[in-house]
Design goal:
The chain is of the alpha/beta class. The protein is about 20% helix and about 20% strand. It has 2 domains: about 240 residues, Glutaconate Coenzyme A-transferase (3-Layer(aba) Sandwich), CATH 3.40.1080; about 60 residues, no CATH class. It is globular, with a radius of gyration of 20 Å. The C terminus is likely disordered. Keywords: Transferase.
């Protein structure tokens, strides 16, 4: 099992100044064991430092999965590109990555998640970058904030405007990671990856291709390792030819504060009677007000927080199935970024 290594062994392959892409959405699919080992190596040896990290969706949360906070040590990250960042209760101490950002200790950018995925795809295809109209006249526009979250980032622009075919576009250069740190449920000895216990794939394939096609390293954290040739080809989402290192982490959480729930990965569907309706209060009032604006047969993108109560309001009022829910973590900009 030449590809199978410990997390500590895997992170010794990451060099100073590397660009690292991480697939995650808070606790979902977070390769926390590898990130923890990476942070431990830096704390003990001072390497690897001056990293650029890429997170289409934030890695980690404030509820037990540290994620990017493992590596948010002074001098370890010089630049971070994220579609979102760890968040939690406002009365709690801010995550370490936020402390680094607000302290101007690194350049931080908030780029729309779909655009980051497209930047990785362009890197995988060895194309120069992304032309998009998404973000014009918003915080992503370089004439406004240009995705910069602090002054350090403003001094190192990540986006510019271009004229192409008589139209104005935003242009983001392709991302070409030196390392992709991804996560799955199972790997075989050849590195083929399946996601049967995961709630999403979150760009694992895009990241693996972007790193592999540019001579980089792909590290995959999994819960278990299977014998070579025993995984069903139909179930493999990332082929072993793209994976260099497999790290077995039997205790990895499926998602935030959850070791494993088969309903999250779609292996079962819970009876509707098993869901609790929200208790009356401000959050329920807001959710009900939103529910009143929904129309039958709409496809509705749902995010975090209070919005997560809206499906339960429909369930309580006998309207389950009236709309189709789409989870924002799996939306890409395909079709939008080209106009």
């Amino acid at each position: 099992m030449a590809k199978v290594k410990t997390a500590a062994q895997a992170v010794t392959l990451i060099k100073n100044g590397a660009t690292i892409a991480v697939n995650s959405s808070s606790g979902l699919l977070c390769p926390d064991a590898v990130l923890e080992a990476l942070g431990q190596r830096f704390a003990a040896e001072g390497v690897p430092g001056q990293l650029t990290t890429i997170h289409p969706i934030c890695a980690g949360d404030m509820f037990g999965t540290k994620g990017v906070d493992h590596i948010a040590q002074p001098g370890m990250i010089r630049r971070i590109i994220g579609g979102s960042y760890p968040s939690g209760p406002t009365n709690a101490a801010p995550p370490l990555i936020w402390q680094r950002i607000l302290g101007e200790e690194l350049a931080a950018y908030n780029v729309p998640s779909g655009i980051i995925f497209d930047m990785l795809r362009e890197g995988a295809a060895c194309r120069p970058g992304v032309l998009t109209k998404v973000g014009i006249d918003t915080f992503a526009d370089p004439r406004l904030e240009g995705c910069a979250m602090n002054e350090t980032a403003r001094q190192q622009p990540i986006v510019k405007t271009l004229q192409f075919e008589g139209e104005e576009w935003l242009y983001f250069s392709a991302l070409k990671p030196d390392v992709a740190i991804i996560r799955a449920s199972t790997a075989d000895e050849k590195g083929n990856l399946t996601f049967e216990q995961e709630g999403a794939t979150l760009g694992a394939m895009e990241m693996a291709l972007a790193a592999h096609n540019n001579g980089g390293l792909v590290i995959a954290q999994v819960r278990r390792v299977a014998a070579q040739g025993t995984l069903k080809p139909h179930d493999v989402k990332v082929p072993g030819i793209l994976v260099d290192v497999v790290v077995e982490a039997p205790e990895q959480l499926q998602t935030t504060a959850t070791f494993y729930d088969p309903a999250i990965s779609g292996e079962i569907f819970r009876p509707l009677s098993s869901f609790e309706v929200p208790a009356f209060g401000p959050a329920k009032v807001m959710a009900r007000r939103v529910a009143q604006d929904l129309q039958k047969d709409w496809a509705v993108n749902i995010g975090f927080g209070i919005s997560a109560n809206v499906p339960r309001i429909l369930l309580e009022e006998g309207q389950h199935g009236a709309v189709t829910w789409v989870i924002d973590a799996e939306i890409s900009q395909k079709g939008c970024t080209s106009g």
